[in-house]
Design brief:
Length: 147
């Protein structure tokens, strides 16, 4: 990895047309660098009010800066038609952690403690040795009960 490359751990969620928004998001994120996506997990809404969410995570290795990544992620949410506040979420992308190496990541304090819908997909990829040879495959969908 170059001195300018960083790894970004991202959590993705959608409960409104999730297949559509995840396909677009996976394609867009794949253009930003080397990436590995977790499987997709269908998990009930945290507050029990909204529809079930599709949840996934990815590790992105990129030469983009932290500020650039944050701006791109917010634009992706806006472009999806994301409305705040709402229980109908087209796309939510959270920057969970970043760093030069998975063993020395800085966690976003606003996202701690990590929620279950972040931990499950993140666990699927965090220690995956395949990340060293990044893949661009679309994940499988799992219901939470299958986890």
């Amino acid at each position: 990895m170059n001195a300018t490359e960083m790894i970004f751990a991202l959590a993705l969620a959608s409960n409104h047309q999730p297949k559509h928004y995840f396909q677009n998001t996976f394609a867009q994120i794949s253009t930003l660098g080397e990436v590995i996506f977790s499987n997709i997990y269908v998990i009930p809404c945290r507050d029990g009010v909204g529809a079930e969410y599709w949840n996934a995570a990815c590790l992105l290795k990129s030469t983009l800066s932290l500020d650039e990544i944050q701006k791109i992620l917010k634009k992706m949410e806006q472009d999806s038609g994301r409305v705040r506040p709402s229980h109908q979420i087209s796309l939510d992308i959270d920057l969970i952690a970043w760093g030069k190496d998975l063993s020395e990541m800085q966690f976003n304090p606003k996202k701690l403690p990590l929620a279950l819908d972040v931990k499950i997909p993140m666990r699927n990829i965090w220690e995956n040795p395949i990340f060293n040879h990044a893949i661009h495959q679309y994940p499988q969908v799992y219901l939470h009960s299958e986890v």
